[in-house]
Amino acid sequence: MIFVYENPKEGLAGATVGNRNIRTSERVTLIVDNTRFVVDPAIFTAQPNTMLGRMFGSGREHNFTRPNEKGEYEVAEGISSTVFRAILDYYKSGIIRCPDGISIPELREACDYLCISFDYGTIKCRDLSALMHELSNDGARRQFEFYLEEMVLPLMVASAQSGERECHIVVLTDDDVVDWDEEYPPQMGEEYSQIIYSTKLYRFFKYIENRDVAKSVLKDRGLKKIRLGIEGYPTYKEKVKKRPGGRPEVIYNYVQRPFIRMSWEKEEGKSRHVDFQCVKSKSITNLAAAAADFPQDQLVVMHPGPQVDELDNLPNHPPGGNHYSNNYNNEPDPDAPSPAV
């Protein structure tokens, strides 16, 4: 099937190749989705900021845009002929009407590919919900870019300047008051989090779609280990209970507020080196082992098992020898000779 499009000032000449009632100015044939479109390139050059405007303007002037052996131009790869036909209306009237059976995301992707503005002045669609969703995503991206520069980035810089490699930011409203008891502060690590007091940012993060957009923006900016969600944050102490034995139990009032966790360090590859050396000592010099909660965990951290590919290279040991086991309850013999590395 061949569709013929002319300069909008001259009007549409015909719908089939057999219609010869067309003016004699230059035309080019575009192939999109195995469909040929005969077009006056002047409709493209009238919109020089679009991809087709560049292709048939400066692109042809500098010999960047070239036809195939039949003199036809294969363009808009991956875009259906139905969508492309609707997009050609943009070059005639400035309006794209979403065809029946075509989703707004598909039309949006085509507009982005062809560098055509996707906004309420350009797109007309019966499915207003889908259209508003796309426009909201655009607005949320622009809005979060502003919040990121004005509110979030200064706290990230403060964390980095203090030697941190990540940050945990909680977003409170302008009216929230944090009043912790100095003698009985919260015991869940909130003292390491940073606070943004902003009702606008709080309302922005209430929508899960906005949190998805914000996460996409942070990923695009190169950040790692990003988590966005809603969590409880302690604001003030309600009461203190005494447990048996005299240990106090502090009860705080918690409010559900948005949070952001992220890191700016690259994930380095783990070392493949395995050290089998055992040193008989009563002290714990391994910091990770010292932080373990149970002696059994300390043993595992101090003497990690070899990786699978390293095990394949070890010599066979006779039965009854002293070896490490995957069973954490079997403790190694500290007097056993150290195997060679």
From TrEMBL:
Q: Which SUPFAM superfamilies match?
A: POZ domain
Q: Which UniProt keywords apply?
A: Cytoplasm
Q: Which Pfam families match?
A: BTB_3
* GO annotation terms (biological process): positive regulation of phosphorylation
Q: What is this protein called?
A: BTB/POZ domain-containing protein 10
The family database entries (InterPro entries) matched by this protein are listed as: BTB/POZ_dom, BTBD10/KCTD20, BTBD10/KCTD20_BTB/POZ, SKP1/BTB/POZ_sf
> Which residues are the signal sequence here?
none
Annotated compartments = Cytoplasm
Taxonomically, which superkingdom? Answer: Eukaryota
Mention any one GO cellular component term assigned to this protein in its UniProt record.
cytoplasm
Q: Which segments does the entry list as coiled coil?
A: none
